[in-house]
Amino acid sequence: MPDPVDLTAALLRCPSVTPEEGGAIVMLEGMLSAAGFACTRVDRGGVSNLHARYGTGGKVLGFNGHTDVVPVGEGWTVEPFRAEIRDGKMFGRGACDMKSAVAAWVCAAIDWAQDNPAPDGSLAILITGDEEGPGVDGTDAILEWMEAKGEGMDHCLVGEPTCPERMGEMMKIGRRGSMTLYLTATGAQGHAAYPHRARNPLPPLISLLNRLATWRMDEGTEAFDPSTLAVTTVDTGNPANNVIPGKATATVNIRFNDAHSSDSIKSSVRTMIAETAVEGVTLEMDAKVSGESFVTEPDGFTDLLRGVVKAETGVEPVLSTSGGTSDARFIRRICPVVEFGLVGQSMHKADEHVIIEDIRALSRIYRRVIDGYFTNQAS
Fold this sequence. Notes:
alpha+beta, Aminopeptidase, Alpha-Beta Plaits, 2 domains, 9 helices, 24% strand, elongated
């Protein structure tokens, strides 16, 4: 098997801060092409994306990952793009989230391809440079290209870091939905000494925010914890203490389970807006939906992955729907999708790192999953 640790280090040396490609996708394209994969760049909107396929028929097992990383930020004690090794750990932006998992899968896939020159099934690898960005021109662009070309997948594994503290302890079979509400209250500016001559937008906006902040959306469902809602910012842009502002805005972030859809939530909030409105002040809502909630029902592939992880690590992973969003939210529209990757404690932090032995263990897990998938252990 190609060394996934060496490939991780090479990828970490690519400064691929989203949406910059940084050389990472070009490197992977070259490696996979040399190993016999049919590679297609599916770039869109200034974002670099790669689709690679090995095999021409049979079941298709897919892998999805990203090479873009969040900005470096402050507080590093090592160079973030040098792949420095200390005490059995490799440091670098993207080490945890998620260049190590990309390297682990690519090395496992190449190893499998070398052992299977005429396979009965196929591997599809979807690598994007837009997971940490807006998520508009990344995995979704690859999937649209696949649908147009008649390319499909029977199952897909996403390599996001899924384990809270110890390798092997968690895999994701679903994700909460995510949406952001942008609320605007518009009244009429006036002097604070003559409030009757103005239309203050703040009281109705505050009343609405209080209803939202105290709204118990649900008690949780079989697959999910209770939905959450957080007021994240309120602003009037008013520097004067003797002026009633003419406009005020607020932002609300909602993470919701499968008891709701984004449309049902928007409908509930519109009702609250109507009930808190006052004469002379308009309340408006704009919503951005990052993804709907979903659950992948456990099947043969889930069992295969879970069994391999336990055999390799000695830990039986919990099936979870916790965390934020991932590109699994796009993939679930075309096939069942499961997520499994490394320990995520250091992702997005200064001195992001990965335990080197975990990289090798993950690559062994991925290789065993590929073998099991094509020996009819998964359906």
